[in-house]
Amino acid sequence: MPPVNSLQRRLGTTDAVIIGLGSMVGAGIFVALTPAAAAAGSWLLVGLALAGAVAYCNAMSSAWLAARYPQSGGTYVYGRERLGDFWGYLAGWSFVVGKTASCAAMALTVGFYVWPAYAHGVAVAAVVALTAVNYRGIQKSALLTRIIVSVVLAVLAAVVVIAATSGRADAEYLRLGDGTVLGVLQAAGLLFFAFAGYARIATLGEEVRDPTRTIPRAIPAALGLALAVYAAVAVTVLAVLGPDRLATAAAPLADAMRIAGAAGFEPVVRVGAAVAALGSLLSLILGVSRTTLAMARDHHLPAGLAVVHPRFAVPHRAEVAVGVVVALLAAVADLRGVIGFSSFAVLVYYAIANASAWTLGRRVVPALGLLGCVVLAVALPVQAVAAGVGVLMLGALIYAVRRVR
Residue 333 — φ and ψ, nearest 5°? Predict the structure, then answer.
């Protein structure tokens, strides 16, 4: 039997890539395109490219760090080891709070696509079901994620083909019209919410076989695949709907199918959106529970959350605690407000990751990543920045009180 707080290395490279891809695809395509279009208009694709560039820097910094510190916790561990206890704690606090909000956003996406009139109830049910799947072990979660990613990619491929060949796509919509630097930066910050899924690979470092090779391969592979999918879908949907209609679309891919004359395919898109959001939610809960485990081991969170199930080899108490908090948040949260707040918290998390990677002797990529994270975080909507700063200050206050005691 493994030690009471030890996880087991069961995931290979393909499993790690699928978990990261499953987290990213669900978030980006079905959630973030609409608010990003509202911010940047026809400059949406420029914002997407900028978000991808910042994500690449963050991904490489995370990969280098994960190869050296193959433990559960991700940047919480890296910040603690490279910058000091406070910075590790702040990274972990940002991740747990921000990604808990992301979990609620994904759960609500499921609700709004499946049964809009009862979106919050469906969201809570989805959280309960996926928490139960995660409780049964990491291999069960990886298998379900494989199935989900296969379904989602098939649906997205069909959307791209139908939209591109419908005759309703207008290249004029892709021309850069009126826009502002702030709008592009806001769009990039909101779309960054979609790219953060590769962090799941790093936070599962203690459950990956041969992590010094697997993690540096899996992180850029998952990010590259997600960027290719985002670009193809964003271009076709923008060409069909136009920036104005996209900025107000509640379900942009479904609306694109209706405008393209394929209304019969709209229910399939809705099912695909729900499945994608479920995949993202599944891997998000995995990542948050592993960071919770790492923080509980260091007594930044209740020590009881560090216990690992003797049979399923998962941090079952942490997973249940995360599931309960996410279910409560999904019952009352507003979807768009959650995205902005989550983006701010995750950008802080990656800023600490880049600062940690700087201390490894690598300079250019971590410096660009750190600068990009700071700029995108500050450029987010004022409400998101204010909420994010408030939560960070609360976390710092809790840390200070603990140190004094």
Answer: -80, 160
CA–CA dist 339, 99 (Å, integer): 10
For the chain, the residue count is 405
Conformational region of residue 73, where left means phi above 0, alpha means psi within -120 to 50, and beta covers everything else: left
Cα separation, 49 vs 292, whole angstroms: 32
**pLDDT tens digits, 221-248:** 888 888 898 899 999 999 999 999 999 8
Sign of the CA dihedral running 37, 119, 323, 139: negative
pTM of the model: 0.81
Q: How many CB atoms lie within 10 A of CB 316?
A: 21
3-state secondary structure of 315: coil
Rounded Cα gap, residues 371 and 375, in angstroms: 6
Return the bridge partners of 204, or none: 72
The letter for the amino acid at 111 is G
The residue with tokens 């902005």 is 340
Question: Taking 60 as the threshold, does the pLDDT of residue 3 lie above it?
Answer: no
CA distances from 26 to 31, 32, 284, 357, 397 (A): 8, 10, 11, 28, 34
Average pLDDT, the chain: 86
Residue 218: exposure state from Cβ atoms within 10 A (0-12, 13-18, ≥19): buried
Among the listed residues 149, 102, 1, 86, the one whose alpha carbon sits nearest the alpha carbon of residue 333: 102
Collapsing DSSP to helix, strand or coil, 261 comes out as: coil
Q: What is the DSSP string of 93-132?
A: HHHHHHHHHHHHHHHHHHHHHH-GGGHHHHHHHHHHHHHH
Around Cβ 403, how many Cβ atoms within 10 Å? 10
CB 143 within 8 A of CB 283: no
Q: How many CB atoms lie within 10 A of CB 259?
A: 18
Contact 31, 171 (CB under 8 A): no
338-358 residue pLDDT tens: 777 888 998 999 999 999 999
Give Cα 121 to chain centroid, integer Å.
22
- Between CA 370 and CA 348 the distance in angstroms is 9
Which tokens belong to 364?
A: 């250019």
